[in-house]
Amino acid sequence: MRNFTYQFHTMKNLYLAVLSFLVMSAAPFSGNAQSIDLTVTKVHLSAYQTAIPLGMRSSMALSIENTDSSIVEAGESIDLMLSIDGIAYSSSVELTSDLAPGDSLYHNFGSSSLHQFPDTGMTHSIFGVVQHALDSNSANDTLIADFVTTPFLDNDWQAVSLEVLSPSGLDSFDIDNGTNSPPNIDLVRVVLRNAGFVQYLKWTPISYRLVLAQDTTLLAGSIEFDSVGNGDSTLRMLSNQAIMPDVPDSVGNYSFCVISNQPWDQNASNDTACYTFAIVDLYDPNDPINWPWAIDEQEANTFSLVAQADYIRFEGIDQALELRIFNVQGGLMATEFIDGPTTLSTNALAPGVYMVQAIANDGHTWGTKFVKY
Q: Which of 115, 150, 185 is at the close of a domain?
Protein backbone atom coordinates (compact mmCIF):
# COMPACT_ATOMS: atom_id res chain seq x y z
CA MET A 1 0.00 0.00 0.00
CA ARG A 2 2.83 2.38 0.86
CA ASN A 3 4.54 1.71 -2.50
CA PHE A 4 1.29 2.33 -4.36
CA THR A 5 0.74 5.60 -2.48
CA TYR A 6 4.31 6.71 -3.26
CA GLN A 7 3.91 5.93 -6.96
CA PHE A 8 0.55 7.75 -7.06
CA HIS A 9 2.00 10.91 -5.54
CA THR A 10 5.09 10.67 -7.74
CA MET A 11 3.01 10.39 -10.92
CA LYS A 12 0.83 13.27 -9.72
CA ASN A 13 3.88 15.44 -9.13
CA LEU A 14 5.30 14.50 -12.51
CA TYR A 15 2.04 15.37 -14.22
CA LEU A 16 1.80 18.72 -12.44
CA ALA A 17 5.42 19.55 -13.27
CA VAL A 18 4.93 18.78 -16.95
CA LEU A 19 1.64 20.67 -17.09
CA SER A 20 3.22 23.70 -15.45
CA PHE A 21 6.14 23.60 -17.89
CA LEU A 22 3.84 23.40 -20.90
CA VAL A 23 1.69 26.26 -19.68
CA MET A 24 4.66 28.53 -18.92
CA SER A 25 6.37 27.70 -22.24
CA ALA A 26 3.29 28.13 -24.40
CA ALA A 27 3.00 31.18 -26.64
CA PRO A 28 0.13 32.42 -28.82
CA PHE A 29 0.15 30.63 -32.14
CA SER A 30 -0.36 32.71 -35.23
CA GLY A 31 -2.16 31.09 -38.10
CA ASN A 32 0.14 32.90 -40.52
CA ALA A 33 3.30 31.68 -38.83
CA GLN A 34 5.17 28.68 -40.12
CA SER A 35 4.31 25.55 -38.13
CA ILE A 36 6.96 23.42 -36.42
CA ASP A 37 6.75 19.93 -34.94
CA LEU A 38 9.41 18.73 -32.52
CA THR A 39 9.33 15.26 -30.97
CA VAL A 40 11.09 13.83 -27.92
CA THR A 41 12.70 10.59 -29.08
CA LYS A 42 14.78 9.46 -26.10
CA VAL A 43 15.54 10.13 -22.43
CA HIS A 44 19.22 9.69 -21.48
CA LEU A 45 20.59 8.93 -18.02
CA SER A 46 23.77 7.27 -16.76
CA ALA A 47 22.45 3.73 -17.01
CA TYR A 48 22.69 0.42 -18.80
CA GLN A 49 19.71 0.50 -21.16
CA THR A 50 16.97 1.28 -18.59
CA ALA A 51 18.77 -0.01 -15.47
CA ILE A 52 20.44 2.44 -13.05
CA PRO A 53 22.88 1.51 -10.25
CA LEU A 54 21.58 2.09 -6.75
CA GLY A 55 22.51 5.51 -5.40
CA MET A 56 23.63 6.82 -8.79
CA ARG A 57 23.94 10.61 -9.07
CA SER A 58 23.36 11.13 -12.75
CA SER A 59 23.34 13.92 -15.27
CA MET A 60 20.56 13.83 -17.87
CA ALA A 61 19.92 14.52 -21.53
CA LEU A 62 17.16 14.50 -24.11
CA SER A 63 17.14 13.65 -27.81
CA ILE A 64 14.60 15.44 -30.00
CA GLU A 65 13.80 15.30 -33.70
CA ASN A 66 12.36 17.77 -36.16
CA THR A 67 9.44 15.71 -37.49
CA ASP A 68 7.92 18.53 -39.54
CA SER A 69 8.67 19.63 -43.08
CA SER A 70 9.84 23.07 -41.93
CA ILE A 71 13.32 24.09 -40.84
CA VAL A 72 13.86 25.28 -37.29
CA GLU A 73 16.27 28.10 -37.99
CA ALA A 74 19.53 28.93 -36.25
CA GLY A 75 19.05 31.40 -33.41
CA GLU A 76 15.67 29.99 -32.37
CA SER A 77 15.19 28.69 -28.83
CA ILE A 78 13.86 25.30 -27.80
CA ASP A 79 12.77 24.62 -24.20
CA LEU A 80 13.35 21.21 -22.65
CA MET A 81 12.31 19.62 -19.37
CA LEU A 82 12.90 16.37 -17.52
CA SER A 83 10.84 15.38 -14.49
CA ILE A 84 12.19 12.61 -12.24
CA ASP A 85 10.60 11.48 -8.97
CA GLY A 86 8.54 14.67 -8.89
CA ILE A 87 11.56 16.95 -9.41
CA ALA A 88 11.54 19.07 -12.58
CA TYR A 89 14.74 20.07 -14.39
CA SER A 90 14.54 22.68 -17.15
CA SER A 91 16.95 23.74 -19.87
CA SER A 92 16.91 25.88 -23.00
CA VAL A 93 18.78 25.44 -26.29
CA GLU A 94 19.55 28.24 -28.72
CA LEU A 95 20.28 26.66 -32.09
CA THR A 96 23.65 27.51 -33.59
CA SER A 97 22.67 25.97 -36.93
CA ASP A 98 19.44 25.07 -38.70
CA LEU A 99 17.56 21.98 -37.54
CA ALA A 100 16.32 20.58 -40.83
CA PRO A 101 13.39 18.16 -41.25
CA GLY A 102 14.46 14.72 -40.00
CA ASP A 103 17.46 16.11 -38.09
CA SER A 104 17.99 15.20 -34.45
CA LEU A 105 19.36 17.20 -31.53
CA TYR A 106 20.99 15.79 -28.39
CA HIS A 107 21.13 18.09 -25.36
CA ASN A 108 22.72 17.47 -21.95
CA PHE A 109 21.18 19.52 -19.12
CA GLY A 110 24.62 20.27 -17.65
CA SER A 111 26.46 19.97 -14.35
CA SER A 112 23.83 21.94 -12.42
CA SER A 113 21.13 19.34 -13.17
CA LEU A 114 22.16 16.12 -11.41
CA HIS A 115 19.58 13.73 -9.99
CA GLN A 116 20.31 11.58 -6.94
CA PHE A 117 18.64 8.19 -7.30
CA PRO A 118 17.79 6.22 -4.13
CA ASP A 119 19.64 3.24 -2.68
CA THR A 120 16.54 1.09 -3.16
CA GLY A 121 15.31 -0.93 -6.10
CA MET A 122 12.27 0.69 -7.68
CA THR A 123 10.77 1.91 -10.94
CA HIS A 124 11.04 5.58 -11.96
CA SER A 125 8.69 6.99 -14.61
CA ILE A 126 10.51 9.90 -16.20
CA PHE A 127 8.90 12.61 -18.30
CA GLY A 128 10.89 14.24 -21.11
CA VAL A 129 9.27 17.31 -22.67
CA VAL A 130 10.14 19.61 -25.59
CA GLN A 131 8.44 22.94 -26.24
CA HIS A 132 8.73 25.51 -29.04
CA ALA A 133 6.66 28.63 -29.47
CA LEU A 134 5.47 27.50 -32.93
CA ASP A 135 5.07 23.79 -32.24
CA SER A 136 1.84 22.70 -33.91
CA ASN A 137 1.50 19.18 -32.49
CA SER A 138 1.57 18.74 -28.71
CA ALA A 139 0.81 15.02 -28.90
CA ASN A 140 4.47 14.08 -29.37
CA ASP A 141 5.99 16.75 -27.12
CA THR A 142 6.20 14.40 -24.13
CA LEU A 143 7.90 11.03 -23.78
CA ILE A 144 7.53 8.87 -20.66
CA ALA A 145 10.39 6.43 -20.06
CA ASP A 146 10.58 3.89 -17.23
CA PHE A 147 13.95 3.27 -15.55
CA VAL A 148 14.63 0.95 -12.64
CA THR A 149 17.24 1.29 -9.89
CA THR A 150 18.80 -2.10 -9.17
CA PRO A 151 21.81 -3.68 -7.39
CA PHE A 152 21.98 -6.38 -10.08
CA LEU A 153 24.00 -4.37 -12.55
CA ASP A 154 27.58 -4.66 -13.75
CA ASN A 155 28.81 -1.25 -12.62
CA ASP A 156 32.61 -1.43 -12.49
CA TRP A 157 35.37 1.20 -12.62
CA GLN A 158 39.01 0.13 -12.93
CA ALA A 159 41.97 2.16 -11.68
CA VAL A 160 44.39 1.77 -14.60
CA SER A 161 47.39 3.85 -13.55
CA LEU A 162 48.79 6.63 -11.39
CA GLU A 163 51.96 8.43 -12.52
CA VAL A 164 53.91 11.16 -10.76
CA LEU A 165 54.94 13.50 -13.60
CA SER A 166 56.56 16.09 -11.36
CA PRO A 167 58.98 15.88 -9.67
CA SER A 168 60.60 13.49 -12.11
CA GLY A 169 63.19 12.26 -9.59
CA LEU A 170 60.96 11.20 -6.73
CA ASP A 171 61.86 7.53 -7.08
CA SER A 172 65.22 6.81 -5.33
CA PHE A 173 65.32 10.36 -3.97
CA ASP A 174 68.35 10.73 -1.68
CA ILE A 175 67.15 12.03 1.68
CA ASP A 176 70.74 13.11 2.47
CA ASN A 177 70.33 16.40 0.60
CA GLY A 178 71.29 18.88 3.30
CA THR A 179 67.70 19.45 4.49
CA ASN A 180 66.40 15.86 4.79
CA SER A 181 63.28 17.08 2.92
CA PRO A 182 61.90 15.25 -0.15
CA PRO A 183 60.18 17.39 -2.82
CA ASN A 184 56.45 18.01 -2.95
CA ILE A 185 54.35 16.15 -5.52
CA ASP A 186 53.38 18.74 -8.15
CA LEU A 187 51.68 16.90 -11.02
CA VAL A 188 49.93 13.52 -11.13
CA ARG A 189 48.23 11.71 -14.02
CA VAL A 190 45.43 9.27 -13.15
CA VAL A 191 43.67 6.99 -15.66
CA LEU A 192 40.34 5.37 -14.78
CA ARG A 193 38.50 2.95 -17.09
CA ASN A 194 34.81 2.07 -17.26
CA ALA A 195 35.02 -1.73 -17.04
CA GLY A 196 31.26 -2.19 -16.56
CA PHE A 197 28.22 -1.74 -18.77
CA VAL A 198 26.80 1.49 -17.34
CA GLN A 199 27.03 4.34 -19.86
CA TYR A 200 28.16 7.42 -17.90
CA LEU A 201 26.90 10.70 -19.37
CA LYS A 202 28.93 13.88 -19.40
CA TRP A 203 28.86 15.69 -16.00
CA THR A 204 27.99 12.51 -14.10
CA PRO A 205 30.21 12.46 -10.98
CA ILE A 206 32.88 9.83 -10.40
CA SER A 207 34.82 9.49 -7.15
CA TYR A 208 38.22 8.09 -6.29
CA ARG A 209 40.83 8.30 -3.52
CA LEU A 210 44.51 9.18 -3.40
CA VAL A 211 46.41 7.22 -0.74
CA LEU A 212 50.03 7.51 0.39
CA ALA A 213 51.01 5.92 3.72
CA GLN A 214 48.43 7.26 6.24
CA ASP A 215 47.39 10.19 4.02
CA THR A 216 44.04 9.64 2.24
CA THR A 217 42.13 12.18 0.12
CA LEU A 218 38.68 11.53 -1.38
CA LEU A 219 38.21 13.30 -4.73
CA ALA A 220 35.04 13.94 -6.74
CA GLY A 221 35.39 14.50 -10.49
CA SER A 222 32.99 14.27 -13.39
CA ILE A 223 32.84 12.79 -16.87
CA GLU A 224 34.24 15.27 -19.39
CA PHE A 225 33.10 13.70 -22.68
CA ASP A 226 29.56 13.21 -24.03
CA SER A 227 29.63 9.73 -22.50
CA VAL A 228 32.06 7.09 -21.24
CA GLY A 229 30.92 3.53 -21.89
CA ASN A 230 32.34 0.04 -21.49
CA GLY A 231 36.10 0.05 -22.18
CA ASP A 232 36.38 3.86 -22.35
CA SER A 233 38.82 5.72 -20.11
CA THR A 234 38.92 9.10 -18.44
CA LEU A 235 42.18 10.95 -17.78
CA ARG A 236 42.60 13.13 -14.68
CA MET A 237 45.53 15.60 -14.45
CA LEU A 238 45.97 16.68 -10.83
CA SER A 239 48.10 19.68 -9.82
CA ASN A 240 46.28 21.17 -6.82
CA GLN A 241 48.75 21.11 -3.92
CA ALA A 242 45.88 21.05 -1.42
CA ILE A 243 44.95 17.49 -2.43
CA MET A 244 48.47 16.09 -2.73
CA PRO A 245 49.73 13.83 0.08
CA ASP A 246 52.88 14.60 2.04
CA VAL A 247 55.91 12.65 0.85
CA PRO A 248 57.45 10.61 3.71
CA ASP A 249 60.82 11.92 4.88
CA SER A 250 62.08 8.53 6.09
CA VAL A 251 64.07 5.94 4.18
CA GLY A 252 61.77 3.23 2.78
CA ASN A 253 59.72 1.89 -0.12
CA TYR A 254 56.32 3.53 -0.66
CA SER A 255 53.22 3.14 -2.83
CA PHE A 256 51.22 6.16 -3.96
CA CYS A 257 47.84 4.75 -5.05
CA VAL A 258 44.58 5.73 -6.70
CA ILE A 259 41.52 3.74 -5.61
CA SER A 260 38.23 3.84 -7.49
CA ASN A 261 35.47 4.79 -5.07
CA GLN A 262 32.29 4.46 -7.13
CA PRO A 263 29.24 3.30 -5.14
CA TRP A 264 28.07 -0.26 -5.76
CA ASP A 265 31.23 -1.11 -7.72
CA GLN A 266 30.93 -4.79 -8.62
CA ASN A 267 34.64 -5.71 -8.80
CA ALA A 268 36.98 -4.59 -6.01
CA SER A 269 39.97 -6.48 -7.45
CA ASN A 270 40.69 -3.82 -10.10
CA ASP A 271 40.01 -0.71 -8.01
CA THR A 272 43.64 0.10 -7.13
CA ALA A 273 46.66 1.23 -9.16
CA CYS A 274 49.92 2.42 -7.59
CA TYR A 275 53.11 4.29 -8.33
CA THR A 276 55.93 2.84 -6.23
CA PHE A 277 59.00 4.80 -5.21
CA ALA A 278 61.87 4.62 -2.73
CA ILE A 279 63.39 7.20 -0.42
CA VAL A 280 67.07 6.36 0.07
CA ASP A 281 70.06 7.68 2.03
CA LEU A 282 73.21 7.56 -0.07
CA TYR A 283 75.38 9.38 2.48
CA ASP A 284 79.01 9.37 1.36
CA PRO A 285 81.40 10.37 4.17
CA ASN A 286 84.12 10.96 1.58
CA ASP A 287 82.09 13.70 -0.10
CA PRO A 288 82.88 17.11 1.47
CA ILE A 289 79.34 18.25 0.71
CA ASN A 290 78.26 15.98 3.57
CA TRP A 291 80.51 17.70 6.11
CA PRO A 292 79.17 18.23 8.73
CA TRP A 293 75.49 17.64 7.90
CA ALA A 294 75.68 13.86 7.81
CA ILE A 295 77.25 13.61 11.27
CA ASP A 296 73.95 13.82 13.09
CA GLU A 297 72.49 11.10 10.84
CA GLN A 298 74.79 8.63 12.60
CA GLU A 299 74.91 7.68 16.25
CA ALA A 300 76.67 10.01 18.67
CA ASN A 301 80.48 9.74 18.81
CA THR A 302 81.80 7.23 21.33
CA PHE A 303 85.14 9.05 21.45
CA SER A 304 86.61 12.52 21.81
CA LEU A 305 89.37 14.06 19.71
CA VAL A 306 91.91 16.65 20.84
CA ALA A 307 94.07 18.28 18.13
CA GLN A 308 97.48 19.81 18.80
CA ALA A 309 100.10 21.29 16.48
CA ASP A 310 101.69 17.97 15.54
CA TYR A 311 99.35 15.25 16.82
CA ILE A 312 95.73 14.26 17.51
CA ARG A 313 94.65 12.41 20.64
CA PHE A 314 91.66 10.03 20.77
CA GLU A 315 90.00 9.45 24.16
CA GLY A 316 86.97 7.41 25.27
CA ILE A 317 87.69 4.49 22.96
CA ASP A 318 85.89 1.34 24.20
CA GLN A 319 85.95 -0.84 21.06
CA ALA A 320 88.06 -1.58 18.00
CA LEU A 321 87.81 1.16 15.39
CA GLU A 322 89.15 1.79 11.92
CA LEU A 323 90.13 5.45 11.56
CA ARG A 324 90.25 7.17 8.18
CA ILE A 325 91.52 10.72 7.72
CA PHE A 326 90.36 12.72 4.66
CA ASN A 327 91.33 16.14 3.35
CA VAL A 328 88.69 18.69 2.22
CA GLN A 329 88.86 17.33 -1.34
CA GLY A 330 87.83 13.91 -0.05
CA GLY A 331 91.25 12.36 -0.51
CA LEU A 332 92.16 9.56 1.89
CA MET A 333 95.32 10.69 3.75
CA ALA A 334 95.76 7.93 6.38
CA THR A 335 94.19 4.78 7.85
CA GLU A 336 94.77 3.52 11.40
CA PHE A 337 93.31 0.70 13.54
CA ILE A 338 92.93 1.40 17.26
CA ASP A 339 91.15 -0.27 20.19
CA GLY A 340 91.84 2.22 23.02
CA PRO A 341 93.05 5.74 23.73
CA THR A 342 95.57 6.61 21.02
CA THR A 343 97.84 9.47 19.93
CA LEU A 344 98.58 9.86 16.22
CA SER A 345 101.23 12.12 14.68
CA THR A 346 100.06 14.71 12.14
CA ASN A 347 103.51 15.88 11.08
CA ALA A 348 102.96 14.48 7.58
CA LEU A 349 99.79 16.53 7.07
CA ALA A 350 99.77 20.00 5.58
CA PRO A 351 97.96 22.74 7.53
CA GLY A 352 94.21 22.67 6.85
CA VAL A 353 90.85 21.11 7.75
CA TYR A 354 90.55 17.33 7.94
CA MET A 355 87.71 14.86 8.45
CA VAL A 356 88.09 11.78 10.67
CA GLN A 357 85.79 8.82 10.01
CA ALA A 358 85.61 6.06 12.65
CA ILE A 359 84.15 2.68 11.62
CA ALA A 360 83.24 -0.01 14.17
CA ASN A 361 83.25 -3.73 13.53
CA ASP A 362 79.42 -3.78 13.46
CA GLY A 363 79.35 -1.17 10.69
CA HIS A 364 78.40 1.88 12.75
CA THR A 365 80.13 5.01 11.54
CA TRP A 366 80.99 8.27 13.29
CA GLY A 367 82.66 11.40 12.04
CA THR A 368 84.28 14.58 13.29
CA LYS A 369 86.64 17.30 12.09
CA PHE A 370 89.93 18.76 13.22
CA VAL A 371 92.24 21.56 12.09
CA LYS A 372 95.98 21.07 11.53
CA TYR A 373 97.85 24.34 12.15
A: 150
How do strand 57-58 and strand 142-150 relate by DSSP bridges?
unpaired
d(CA 100, CA 71): 5
CA distances to 60, 88, 124, 126, 148 from 85, in Å: 14, 8, 7, 7, 12
CATH at 311: 2.60.40.3080
Tally the domains of the chain: 3
Phi first, then psi, for residue 148 (nearest 5°) are -125, 135
Residues 6+ apart with CB under 8 A from 4: none
Q: Are residues 140 and 185 in the same domain?
A: no
pLDDT of residue 6: 46
* Residue 282: pLDDT band with limits 50, 70, 90: confident
The values of phi and psi at residue 248, to 5°, are -60, 140
Beta bridge partners, 343, equal 313
Query: Do residues 245 and 307 share a domain?
Result: no
Residue 311 and residue 198 in one domain: no
pLDDT per residue over 292-349, tens digit each? Answer: 544 344 445 567 888 888 899 988 888 889 999 988 777 889 999 999 899 999 999 9
Q: Which amino acid is at 35?
A: S
* Whole-Å CA distances, 242 to 7, 162, 258, 276, 325: 45, 18, 16, 21, 48
Instruction: Give the residue from 100, 129, 150 where a domain finishes.
Output: 150
Task: Report in angstroms the alpha-carbon separations of 195 from 51, 116, 146, 155.
Answer: 16, 22, 25, 8
Model confidence, pTM:
0.68
DSSP 29: P
